[in-house]
Write a structure and sequence with these properties.
It is a single chain. The protein contains 3 helices and 10 strands. It is an alpha+beta fold. It has one domain: OB fold (Dihydrolipoamide Acetyltransferase, E2P), CATH 2.40.50.180. It has a 5-stranded mixed sheet with strand order 8-1-2-10-9, with no helix packed on it. It is elongated. The protein starts with a helix and ends in an 11-residue tail after the last helix.
Length: about 170
């Protein structure tokens, strides 16, 4: 009898959601899909969304380099975000693929995504912790949207491509 009361009290205490520090902080994000998964990136780091048509492949580059694209007279290197994140599967065959032009510091790069879903605001304090130790993931919003840290992604040295001359 007493153990049941203890368990009920414990259940009541655990059922209360604690107030999270910074729960009033919001971020405007761009939502997009890559290989059937929903992702988001903070909007201030994005300059534009462009259709991924006329993408020119670059020979002898790693799989995460999708190619290059001329955007308003500027040649932009485009990363295949699925390959960069190590996602399995193939890109959809339809023409919905888009390129997100992102900028961080001196780095300007295109991110190839399968579909742009839209823009919305996310409460950063309400994010669930990432399920993996991926350094590019800030957290999970609403159980199905992975918020990426674009600054960490673009600053990561593993995406540097060096030309070796013999």
């Amino acid at each position: 009898m007493q153990s049941e009361q203890i368990l009920r009290d414990r259940a009541r205490r655990l059922a209360v959601v604690p107030a999270q520090a910074g729960s009033s902080k919001w971020a405007e994000v761009v939502l997009f899909a890559v290989r059937g998964e929903r992702y988001a990136i903070e909007a201030p780091l994005l300059r534009m969304v462009h259709r991924a048509t006329n993408l020119t492949t670059i020979p002898c580059t790693p799989p995460f380099i999708a190619g290059m694209l001329n955007v308003r007279g500027e040649v932009v290197i485009v990363l295949d975000l699925a390959a960069a994140l190590g996602l399995p599967g193939e890109a959809p065959a339809d023409a919905k693929r888009s390129m997100l032009l992102a900028e961080h510091g001196q780095v300007r790069v295109g991110l190839l995504v399968d579909e742009v879903i839209g823009i919305r605001r996310l409460a950063l304090g309400a994010l669930d912790p990432p399920l993996t130790g991926d350094e590019f993931v800030v957290g999970i919003a609403e159980g199905n949207t992975v918020l990426l840290n674009l600054e960490r992604l673009l600053a990561n040295r593993r995406f540097d491509v060096f030309e070796e001359v013999n």
